[in-house]
Amino acid sequence: MQNLTPRLTMNPCPCGNLFSTTTPCRCSDTEIARYRARLSDPFLDRIDLYVQMHPIDAEDKPGLPSREFHARVREAFLRQKRRGQHRLNGSLSDEEVARHCILGVESQQVVDQAIGRFGLSFRAVTRLLKVARTIADLEGSDDIQKPHLLEALSYRRRS
Fold first, then answer.
1. d(Cα 12, Cα 10) in Å, to the nearest integer?
2. Is 120 helix (H, G, I), strand (E, B) or coil?
3. Degrees (nearest 5) of the Cα angle 10, 16, 20?
4. Residue 45: count of CB within 10 angstroms of its CB
5. Who wins on pLDDT, 24 or 159?
6. Which of 114, 93, 103, 105 is nearest to 143 (CA)?
7. What's the pLDDT tens digit per position in 1-31?
8. What domains are there in the chain, each with its CATH number?
9. Alpha-carbon distance 99 to 93, whole Å?
10. What single-letter DSSP state applies at residue 91?
11. Euclidean distance between CA atoms 134 and 79, whole angstroms
12. CA distance linking residue 101 with residue 130, whole number of Å
């Protein structure tokens, strides 16, 4: 069985200009709502990361050099192996998440608050923990800390 990592893209509205700073959006609120309603909540709940992209200026400098980024990813992969994982964080079973995504008191409070505030499902919490575990690994941290969870929460779908 192959591991697939789907990457989905979607315009913010039918005309694609809702958040544009150069071209005004031509869509009504009703059209935007209808456009976004095409995808069901259960489908959207299965997506790990939501990132809003903006056009970049040709003069903008890139963030992390690709060589350094590659080294971080490699080290995160090795960290997962040393932890005894046989799969990448995104592919962990519920049992493996419980074993490899242990939270301290402060981190657990963040998760509990997120559940209460956003009404996260069990599936959403599991995905949140997998993303936070990956962020912690990329930052070289053995523990999932509050900043890792807050960053993972920032990638969740906003209504």
1. 6
2. coil
3. 115
4. 14
5. 24
6. 103
7. 456 677 888 899 999 999 888 899 999 999 9
8. 66-154 (1.10.8)
9. 10
10. G
11. 10
12. 7
